[in-house]
Amino acid sequence: MNKITFFIAIAGILNACSGNKTHNVSGEIDNATDSILYIEANTLEGIKTLDSIRLKADGEFAFSVEVPKESPEFYNLRIGNERIPFSIDSTEQITITAALPDFSTDYKVEGNESSKKIKEMYGMQLKLQNQIVALEKNKDMFPGDIVDSINTLISAHKETIKEKYIYPNAASAAAYYAVCQSLTDLQATWFLFNPLTDRNDVKAYAAVATAWDCYYPDAERTIQICNAAIKGLDNTATKKVEHIKSIGGKAIEETGIIDVELPDIKNKIHKLTSLKGKVVLLDFTVFGTPDSPERTRMLRTLYEKYSSRGFEIYQVGLDDDIHFWKSSVEYLPWISVHETNGLATNAYAVSSVPTFFLINRENEIVLRSDFMKGSLEDNIDKLL
């Protein structure tokens, strides 16, 4: 179990923390008198020990670490070869309680929601790894049946991870941890999610990369996961698009936006990527809100003014009432589609509406509404 770790794509695991403010990590480890408790940072170069303490009979401990500045950071508590993973993403007080001998399998973490989810995933990892090892040791099964059984377990596990921990909040530390896990079986250590050649896995990476690029654009780990996602999109694309884009100030290979394929009121599917060559407003909205009519009039004014110059709106309606949505968009001049499964909103880390993105003529996101400077019209005009 001590071999289960998480990595950031191919290059390694997460960067060390940075900043001047300190953050307290404290708690109690029972049945651990005279044991050495270490706190470790998961860095790009590997695991680094930050501090240690010899536990007394009461098992109490307290560590201070620097508060992360650019993005969430990831740490371990360790006794021997057993580790408890957790994250720090602001200034919470993290409290961890555990006991020997079940240090890494039966513990409690308070003060950080992502760390609670990481604990759940860590337990799932342990269970999955034990199941895989048991299958590999089974002498009564044919090798092909063993492989099929392992693949079935892994596929089911990954679907649960995506639905429960990645897509609901792709910008979270838990989502980042989820896509960067690795497992060790009897044969080797390997990535649970393949960021380079598995199309479905690449989509999960891309969802987290898009969200982190919006919320933590300057963090090095954001640059890395963007590189991994973009490389994977490039490897798995039907037609490769080879050019260079700058994300967070660093040159990386870019294949374009995460595609959206949704139906309009006539059930015709519209692909977001088919609008390449135009300046696109990707707009997530709910028509059943009080301010929707006024906002729709504003968008109609912009569309009438700029559509002849190559401006398009791809509007994703999220209304629960499908009939109300249809009546609201029936006479709109732009592309109006509807989503019910949440895949597009999760992929673009949309947590409130309205949220919009501006996409340039090369199918590249250049602006999210949360970070817009100046008016929407000014930003559209500049891109045109």
Low-confidence stretches: 1-20, 238-255
What's the end-to-end separation, in Å?
55 Å
Which strand order spans the largest sheet, edge to edge or round the barrel? 18-17-16-19-20
* Rounded average pLDDT: 82
The total beta strand count reads: 20
Helix content percent band: 25-40%
User: Could you give the order of the helices and strands?
Assistant: EEEEEEEEEHHHEEHHEEEEEHEHEHEEH
- Percent of sequence in beta strands: 25-35%
Report the principal-axis shape.
Answer: globular
What number of domains? 3
Q: How many H/I helical runs?
A: 9
What kind of sheet is the major sheet? 5 strands, mixed
Secondary-structure class: alpha+beta
Rg, Å, rounded: 24 Å
Task: Jot down its keywords.
384 residues; alpha+beta; 3 domains; 5-stranded mixed beta sheet; 4-stranded mixed beta sheet; globular
Question: Can I get a quick summary?
Answer:
It contains 9 helices and 20 strands.
Describe this protein's structure.
This protein is α+β, with helices and mostly antiparallel strands and 384 residues long. It has three domains: 5-176, no CATH class; 199-254, no CATH class; 261-383, Glutaredoxin (3-Layer(aba) Sandwich). 33% of the residues lie in helices and 28% in strands. It is built from nine helices and 20 strands. The chain has helices spanning 113-137, 143-166, 173-179, 199-215, 220-236, 292-306, 322-329, 343-347, 376-383, and strands spanning 5-6, 22-30, 36-43, 46-54, 60-66, 73-79, 82-88, 94-99, 108-110, 181-184, 189-191, 243-247, 250-254, 261-263, 269-271, 279-285, 311-317, 335-338, 355-359, 365-368. It has a five-stranded mixed sheet with strand order 18-17-16-19-20. Helix 6 (292-306) links the parallel strand 16 (279-285) and strand 17 (311-317). Helix 1 (113-137) runs parallel beside helix 3 (173-179). Residues 1-20 and 238-255 have low confidence and may be disordered.
